[in-house]
Amino acid sequence: MNSLTGAKIAVxxxxxxxxxxxxxxxxxxxxxxxxxxxxxxxxRARGLIIHSRGQTLQFPVKTAATPCEIGPVDLxxxxxxxxxxxxxxxxxxxxxxxHTVLLTLQNGLGNDDFLAERWGAExxxxxxxxxxxxxxxxxxxxxxxxxxxxxxxxxxSDCPRTLAVVDAFVAAGIAASGVENLQAxxxxxxxxxxxxxxxxxxxxxxxxxxxLNDPLLQSEARALMYEVTQxxxxxxxxxxxxxxxxxxxxSWSMGPYRPSSLIDWxxxxxxxxEAIWGEPLKRxxxxxxxxxxLQLLYSLLSRLTxxxxx
Amino acid sequence: MNSLTGAKIAVxxxxxxxxxxxxxxxxxxxxxxxxxxxxxxxxRARGLIIHSRGQTLQFPVKTAATPCEIGPVDLxxxxxxxxxxxxxxxxxxxxxxxHTVLLTLQNGLGNDDFLAERWGAExxxxxxxxxxxxxxxxxxxxxxxxxxxxxxxxxxSDCPRTLAVVDAFVAAGIAASGVENLQAxxxxxxxxxxxxxxxxxxxxxxxxxxxLNDPLLQSEARALMYEVTQxxxxxxxxxxxxxxxxxxxxSWSMGPYRPSSLIDWxxxxxxxxEAIWGEPLKRxxxxxxxxxxLQLLYSLLSRLTxxxxx
Lengths: 310, 310
What we know:
By secondary structure, chain A is an alpha/beta fold. The first copy, chain A, contains 13 helices and ten strands.
């Protein structure tokens, strides 16, 4: 796969992230089909709607209600929640041909491994989406801030396909870049997700701005960030010391943004507790790094998210 | 003060704890006056009601609506919430004569110091109440479990008055004992209060049994207990290593008990966050002991309790 031009692309799990990145590729002319359930009728009737930076894009996208209708494709974008990964065992096989590439847009750790174990490590790519998105209705996405995507390979080899995917996103108007070490990038992203997604729930439903403006919570966010960087460093994923301050500083522009996990929790949807907190905790423990705050946060979140919110 | 026989006793803050211990002294014939506000009419009309161990005690108790009606007494039992300590600056002076003893039944750290700074260290005593009580209505207390009281002096001198207070509680049917080092006992009590009161709120409103039955939460309770014992040890308040396991084991008998802080939080009342978590955290930091879980828990509780529950 040297270019996505003419390639068939399917999106599985077209929530905010899947619909945004898949939709932007479709808008740029790539051949994208969204696999949809609840949003199927709305998108078929009036296309996808993306509100972004003061303008609204509304455009038709190919849709399918089952993966068999789509058949084998060149690339699958996976935007499903990690908590629903088991569903992929039914959804992916019809889409997978000999050379199909699976690109997971999912947060946290363990999703690449899940895919690799079942469909082969060779075909697995991962992306990290640095973006503030909310799904505000069926097939209707609000893009609030940021938007870049970082793409890498599960196996650390250099690949022309990485560049092909990056090129396609860039052509779709998205700041995209390739990365040599995907797992290292995943740990870098956790530096933000662990504290902000976690504290936003554990502190009772607070926004990014709330955390930054509360001296105790901001201090805990920093402390959690240091635990994550220490764990990453011990695994050989070096994170520069001023990265924590960089992440705190860049978060101010998000304002009263509700991290995706908080929104899921408040809506009573499953929260990706294992991918974002449980798996990093396990991997930190496996290399002997003590992460007491992460452990307490994980334990609280496991409990808090096991009870349905009203 | 060599005996409480014939001594005048006032109770300030006759919530569950103040009403129970003061009420039991009154029931045993000691001259106790409860300073009451919202419960005044009910207690004046039909006395105090204590449901305990399958039986109900209902008996008249002297009541007053203002401290001036009571005047100087020999002993004040202080059961007010630590968050309302400022109110003591108005409530206590009319009760204090030259030899008046102030016995705080309050939880956590800092309350003895608050009293000592204002009314002199000599007159301050403290008690730790190991008891499960709920106030179920005006002047009506349910005694669920345990019930012992440990009494000590703010200044570490041996005092005949310690024995006098202990004797009175014993005469009232309460398992009471004197303790040489009050601050050491306070730290021993925090070993339980820090995790159970704290996690019960932070995990979204869970009982003692919920915490014990959830492997992650029980593990965090133990880890918090170790942080508290390490801090105590560093201050010279030695706590034996198996005390954590002892505390976990004894908690099973409490069943689905809601710690007092959880009840306060759920009812929208102030929670003693500084006394139970903030002050211990400060004192641990002052002796250079790192207590990351306590810090995270304190920060979460500060936020969670600053927002009124519905």
